[in-house]
Amino acid sequence: MSRFVLASLCIIAPFPIAATAQQPSQPTHNVQGAVRVVDARARALEVTTGVGMALRVVRIEVPADVRVMARGAAVTLSQLAPGDIVRVSYGGQPGGYRAYTIERVGRMETGAEGTP
Question: What share of the chain is helix, strand, coil (3-state, %, to 5)?
Answer without folding.
Answer: 20, 45, 35
